[in-house]
Design a protein that fits this description.
Distance between the termini: 111 Å
Shape: elongated
Radius of gyration: 49 Å
Number of strands: 0
Strand content: under 5%
């Protein structure tokens, strides 16, 4: 048997096809039962169990039994028990032979003559190794074949029930025996194979019997999930490489595995790591790395680069020294087209930097050079074309920041590049850039001396101090040097230098000072009193003072040496100055990034927003000066609508958090959370103080967002009752505290009361005593926010659409609240803050009062009496008589006015408004009195302000009364509804309910008509209406700008007029032209801005009136004031997007705002066009008008602005049909375009279209006749070339290649024809010039007299060839001859030739 078995041949036969493998005495396994097969196997095992060598001497059938079973391992008769018995026999035999060989080799009596002793085990080992390889190969295939042949896996999850319970219960599972197989293989590979197999081929065949199964097991990913199996496979291969010359085979197999099995990338790296660390064999890893470095990958190759990159990263992580040796070769992959390879090299560079910096071995200078070189490679990749690579660079540096080494020299460059990356075009790169900035802050190296905070003013002060101190030391060193080299001679030279540098007489004067003054000067320098002075100022003082001190030279030298010239101190000062300078540079870098990060707070990417919030939180904790601006900007994110969970708080889960929840956490952690080392009382005071400070210098938008934040926190129980009480204590204190502090307390209390009105309901007395008492009189802002807090008494329930219920609380009009409010409005001192206070006071009255119209009517009368009383009277009389202000008369509308702008109130009409006993105090009508008061120079200011107060109250009362009328209407409807329901219940069953519904509906319509009639006819035109009196007055003030010059009065009057115009359509129509006139002529931007906003409100109320004058709405877009322009844009955006006005070709002016200098206006315009693009075809329908508006005419913009604007707008043209239609229309525009600027603009617009479809290209080619003659213009030709390149770059299946080639040919042909025409034109002109030059000397022969005279005239008038062409046209003779009948053919022909030549 042994003579017949050849391992190499057997392995070759087995590798081709196991089913064709020849066995001389093969058992018919398929015909045998499992018991019969088991008996054959038992006999074979019995023959070899006592002596494994007996396989050589036993019958050949013994070996063939094992081979037959393995050949038919998938047969039904080969059960799990048979496979287990077979495996046990094989493993036992291999272990026995391995032990025997090791016993021979390691025996004490093993001598040189016994070298051939292990050879007796060669053949048995080969036979058993062959069976082991076959067994592993067959067993590894068994599960898959069994699952394909029978539906057993379907019942696998139900306890393994199947049709063959015996097979399933005793099925052989290879993974259960892999550990034993691998350990046996390891034992066999530890044999001295070189002594048993003398030839390399024989030894490789034997080794392959163990290595090949190991590689085969690696191909199944499930086997590698077991740590024991994975380690066993690695050790088998490592033993083969280390002791059995398998290095080249392993290298080839590893490269193949990396190429074809993606899951083996990391296991192969782990294999090389074990080989290097446990077996001290790093050569294989180096060879593999060299082969990987020589590979090239295409940009579209996905699988290969990904697998090799993971392998390299894992190997560098485990064996950085091996990878570092091959880095010069691996760096070639930094230029690879496949970005995964570039990413891998970048990550490897980071690992090597970490390894080098943490290693204690090697030369320090060499390590610094290596680190510097690696950082240079990283910083170069900041500019990589692929965003994933740029992100990987940032991630790598983030990990490096956590190392103990700070890399201070590289941090400057890294910070600059990272700040630049904040403006990267991809979201992932920006997000990682923010993370890196946070990490740079958290790990900055400037925390050793001053605690780690990075406040710019503090560090600047420290730097200035150390600079001044170092300057004094330098000055004293200079003095010592002067003494050493000779004082007097050096002093004379120094004086000459000083005389040249400073042109002041004080230098000469100081040379004559006495010694006492010089001593004082030196003492000042030494004591450091002049720290703020520069080096150039302190040094001359010392020089001037030193000169006369000849007698005290030695004493001075001793003092200087002892106090300042300590070498260690000087070195320490210089190092400290450098330390401060580096810190300042880093702080300034961070400060420069804050504006960009504030913009990222409003990014559309949620992850960017969350990272930006984390940065500002970190920056605030490190006391960055400008972090406060980011914290304020962040506040507006409270309006973000996202419903993600806020449970996670780790960095890994930051993307799973909601923006709103994260914002609340940030503010809570910075301002409202408990801090350690403070008593409970101090904690409460700190939180209340932080809440109040949030209101300091806050804008209206910031206060609105802060209100939502406070409301949310209060609703969630995030504000403790002790904090509320502390805020009330601050508000109610009798002590003198800053006004802003008391104002902030009531602002916060009003915000908290939105969520919980009990905050203010229990402290109404304090509000009346403080905010509406003496403190409020002296601080109208405090009174204003007190009114806002009082409004919370009515609750904050939002009105449900369609609901008739009114849940607001109403108070009787004799409540002290209304008395205080009335006194504040009437008797508050003159101040610009009065208007906002009065607005909130009226809001409070209408929100809480049962009959607010009566109280407001009384206030209007009192203010009227004060305005129109005698000039000598200091206070207004009490006009409190009974008035006819019932539900109609007292109802003041939103905005009122009178038709005739010059009309004045008649005395009779005034008498009907005031009681007869009080009319005597008013001389004449209010309008006439206002005119006379305004005309008196002595009391102009006081009278104007009082009149402005009156008009403001009238206007705001009108606007609030409209709301009140709606509430009245809703209350009437609610009562009618309840009455109808009661009647329906009481009616008999035979009554039809539908009839009742119809009756109720008619009743509601009647109520609505009644309220509309009151609003339209009664409020401004009723005989008993109070507002009807003031409409003409308001209109008169607005129409007389020369008479009423006070800006405050004009602002109040215009505002009142706009409010009154919202009440009645009739009043609005009468005064609309006046309002537009004021908008055009007013020089006050406040007035113009208010009018623009009011026009938006009027458009809501009376849209038909504005539609007729819609073009005037767009005038504000050209206003020089940015505030007016912004208001106009906001109003138009609201009206257009909500369909309240129709666009009639005026979008061109709005398109101009896309590139406005004001960033807010530009952002608003961009938002408008973005939203407009979602409204069906609205943008497409107006695109032609926008192009015309911006390209030609008086409204045209420069080409650069045009291109930027169109580039933004065209990105919203996404539909193919729209693009096709635009191509056709733009091509037709070429036909009428005469200016080259228009050609360029149209061509640019065409180049912005995608040209993805075949029809778009065909439309472009069909329009060729329209623009063919324009292609000679360089820019136009370049644009069409870009269109051609874009059409060809589209990766669509139906790309019209034929049409594109045709278009290219026509394009170049047109360009060529134009050039040919130009050349022909030049040639014709040259020829004509030569022809005239040839005739110039004189006529040859007898010519006609006229021709001769003409030639002589031409010669005399034309000094050269250049002017000769211009000479013929001015002469009238050719024109006369051209018009005459052609009687003289010769002369006529000559004249025509002359005309043609002159044209060229």
């Amino acid at each position: 048997m042994s003579d017949e078995f050849n391992l190499q041949e057997e392995l070759l036969s087995l590798s081709s096809d196991p089913s064709l493998y020849h066995i001389p005495r093969e058992l018919d396994v398929s015909a045998l039962s499992e018991d019969d097969l088991d008996s054959h196997l038992s006999e074979a095992i019995e023959s070899v169990v006592n002596d494994p060598d007996s396989i050589l001497h036993s019958t050949p059938q013994t070996f063939d039994v094992f081979r037959s079973i393995l050949k038919h391992a998938d047969a039904s008769s080969v059960g799990g028990a048979i496979m287990i018995k077979t495996l046990d026999a094989i493993l036992s035999a291999i272990n026995s032979h391995s032990s025997a060989v090791m016993a021979l080799v390691s025996g004490a009596g093993f001598a040189a003559e016994d070298m051939d002793a292990p050879m007796v085990h060669k053949r048995p080992l080969e036979m058993w190794a062959f069976l082991l390889q076959w067994f592993v190969s067959a067993a590894d295939k068994m599960p898959s074949k069994a699952s394909d042949a029978a539906p057993a896996p379907a019942a696998r999850g139900k306890g393994g029930k199947s049709k063959k319970p015996v097979r399933s219960s005793s099925a052989f599972v290879l993974s259960d025996h892999l550990t034993l197989i691998l350990s046996t293989s390891q034992k066999a590979l530890r044999l001295p194979t070189s002594r048993i197999w003398r030839t390399t081929s024989d030894r490789e065949s034997f080794v392959s019997c163990f290595v090949k199964p190991a590689y085969q097991l690696c191909e199944t990913e499930s086997h590698l999930k077991s740590p024991e199996v994975r380690a066993g496979i690695y050790r088998v291969i490592c033993l083969a490489v280390k002791f059995n010359g398998h290095a080249f085979g392993a290298q080839t197999t590893i490269i193949q595995n990396l190429t074809y099995f993606e899951h083996l990338s990391e296991p192969m790296a782990e294999l090389l790591e074990m080989l290097e660390k446990e077996f001290d064999y790093g050569q294989l890893g180096e060879e593999v790395l060299r082969e990987v470095a020589a590979k090239t990958f295409a940009h579209n190759d996905a699988k290969g680069p990904r697998s090799f990159s993971r392998f390299l990263v894992r190997l560098a992580e485990g064996s950085p020294r091996v990878v570092q040796k091959q880095m010069p070769l691996l760096l070639a992959h930094l230029d690879s087209e496949a970005h995964p390879m570039r990413m891998a090299i970048i990550e490897i560079i980071g690992m090597l930097i970490r390894d080098i910096s943490s290693s204690d071995e090697g030369d320090e200078e060499q390590k610094k050079k290596q680190i510097k070189r690696f950082f240079e490679l990283l910083t170069e990749r900041y500019l990589d074309l692929n965003s994933w690579v740029r992100s990987k660079v940032l991630q790598t540096i983030i990990k490096l920041c956590d190392l103990p080494a700070k890399f201070t020299k590289q941090r400057v460059t890294i910070t600059d590049l990272t700040i630049r990356t904040l403006e990267d075009k991809t979201s992932s790169a920006r997000r990682y850039a923010i993370q890196l900035l946070c990490k740079l802050l958290e790990t900055h190296p400037f925390g050793m001396m001053h605690g780690g905070t990075l406040n710019l003013p503090e560090w600047q002060e420290r730097y200035d101090q150390i600079s001044a101190e170092l300057a004094k030391v330098d000055a004293q060193e200079l003095e010592k040097a002067k003494r050493d080299v000779g004082y007097e001679s050096h002093e004379e030279e120094q004086e000459e230098v000083e005389g040249a540098e400073t042109e002041e007489g004080a230098e000469k004067k100081s040379n004559d000072e006495d010694s006492e003054e010089a001593e004082k000067s030196i003492e000042r320098d030494e004591e450091g009193e002049d720290e703020g002075e520069g080096e150039g100022e302190s040094t001359p003082k010392a020089k001037k003072a030193k000169r006369p001190r000849q007698s005290q030279l030695d004493i001075s030298a001793i003092q200087a040496e002892q106090s300042t010239l300590d070498a260690e101190r000087i070195t320490r000062l210089r190092l400290t100055k450098k330390y401060y300078a580096d810190a300042l540079r880093f702080i300034n870098q961070i400060e420069s990034a804050v504006p960009i990060l504030c913009q990222l707070l409003v990014s559309t990417s949620k992850s960017e927003v969350l990272e930006a919030m984390r940065f500002f939180r970190t920056a605030y904790e490190y006391n960055i000066a400008s972090a406060e601006s980011g914290i304020k900007t962040m506040l507006h994110l409270i309006w973000t609508k996202d419903n993600n969970s806020t449970a996670a708080s780790t960095e890994e889960g930051i993307d799973g958090r909601s923006i709103k929840g994260n914002l609340i956490d940030v503010y809570r952690s910075l301002y409202f959370d408990v801090v350690p080392d403070l008593s409970p009382k101090q904690q409460v005071s700190r939180i209340a103080k932080n809440m109040i400070e949030r209101t300091y210098n806050a804008t209206l938008a910031e206060l609105t967002s802060l209100e939502e934040l406070m409301r949310t926190m209060m609703a969630d129980g995030g504000v403790h009752i002790d904090v509320v009480n502390k805020l009330w204590q601050v508000y109610s204190t009798e002590q003198e505290i800053p006004k802003a502090q008391r104002q902030g307390a009531i602002i916060i209390l009003g915000m908290l009361a939105i969520a919980k009105k009990e905050v203010v309901t229990e402290r109404v007395d304090a509000l009346l005593r403080i905010g509406l008492g003496p403190y409020g009189m002296n601080d109208l802002v405090l009174a204003k926010y007190t009114c806002v807090a009082l409004q919370r008494l009515g609750g904050s329930q939002k009105k449900v659409k369609g609901s008739l219920a009114d849940r607001t609380m109403r108070l009787p009009m004799d409540n002290p609240i209304f008395v205080k409010l009335k006194d504040m409005v009437e008797h508050a001192p003159k101040s610009p803050q009065w208007f906002s206070m009065a607005e909130q006071a009226i809001n409070t009255i209408y929100l809480l009062g049962e009959q607010p119209d009566s109280l407001c009517g009384e206030m209007i009368k009192n203010l009227t009496a004060r305005v129109f009383s005698a000039p000598s009277s200091s206070t207004a009389p009490d006009v409190s008589g009974e008035t006819d202000t019932d539900a109609e008369g007292g109802e003041t509308a939103d905005e009122a006015g009178e038709g005739d702008v010059t009309a004045t109130l008649s005395p009779s009409k005034t008498a009907t408004l005031l009681s007869p006993t009080k009319t005597a105090t008013i001389s004449g009508s209010p309008a006439k009195t206002a005119h006379s008061r305004a005309g008196s120079p002595g009391d102009d200011t006081a009278g104007s302000f009082a009149l402005a107060q009156l008009l403001f109250v009238v206007g705001h009362t009108a606007i609030k009364h409209i709301v009140y009328l709606e509430l009245v209407e809703r209350e009437f409807k609610r009562r009618k509804d309840e009455t109808a329901k009661l009647k329906a219940a009481a009616k008999a069953a035979d009554k039809d309910a539908n009839d009742l519904d119809a009756v109720a509906g008619n009743a509601e319509d009647d109520i609505g008509d009644l309220i509309a009639t009151i609003r339209e006819k009664e409020l401004l035109y009723g005989e008993k209406s109070l507002l009807a009196v003031y409409g003409p007055l308001v209109a008169s003030v607005c129409a007389s700008p020369k008479r009423y010059r006070s800006p405050v009065l004009r602002q109040a009057a215009t505002l009142a007029l706009t409010k009154l115009m919202c009440v009645s359509a009739q009043f609005c129509e009468q005064h609309l032209l006046l309002l537009f006139k004021i908008l055009e002529t007013s020089k006050d931007p406040v007035v113009r801005g208010n009018i623009v906003i009011a026009l938006g409100d009027i458009a809501l109320c009376f849209g038909s009136l504005i539609d007729d004058n819609s073009e005037r709405l767009y005038q504000g877009l050209t206003d020089p004031d940015p505030g007016v322009k912004k208001n106009t844009l906001m109003v138009l955006t609201h009206l257009i997007l909500n369909g309240m006005i129709k666009v009639k070709g005026q979008l061109g002016e709005m398109a101009k705002c896309v590139e406005d200098e004001d960033e807010r206006i530009a952002d608003l315009a961009k938002m408008f066009f973005k939203e407009l693009s979602t409204k069906d075809n609205a943008l497409y329908n107006n695109l032609q008008d926008v192009i015309s508006h911006l390209s030609i005419g008086k409204h045209a913009v420069d080409e650069e602005t045009f291109e930027k604007t169109m580039k933004y707008i065209f990105q919203f043209i996404e539909k193919e049909k729209q693009a096709e239609a635009i191509v056709e229309k733009l091509c037709q525009r070429f036909r009428l375009a005469t200016d080259e600027r228009q050609w360029r603009d149209i061509a640019f617009c065409l180049s912005l279209l995608p040209f993805k479809s075949e029809r778009s290209v065909k439309k472009l080619i069909e329009g060729l006749p329209f623009y063919q003659d324009k292609l000679h213009e360089e820019t136009v030709f370049r644009r069409f070339s870009e269109i051609l390149a874009k059409a060809r770059s589209n990766k669509t299946s139906n790309k019209p290649e034929t049409e594109l080639k045709e278009f290219e040919a026509v394009q170049h042909q047109a360009k060529g024809l134009e050039e040919q025409a130009l050349e022909a034109d030049v040639a014709r002109k040259t020829k004509a010039a030569k022809k005239r030059a040839a005739r110039r000397p004189g006529p040859q022969g007898q010519g006609r007299g006229a021709a001769k005279d003409r030639r002589e005239r031409e010669e005399s008038e034309a000094p050269g060839d250049g002017e000769e062409d211009k000479a013929p046209p001015p002469t009238p003779a050719p024109k006369a001859r051209a018009k005459a009948p052609p009687r003289r053919g010769g002369r006529r022909k000559a004249v025509v030739e002359s005309d043609e030549e002159s044209d060229f």
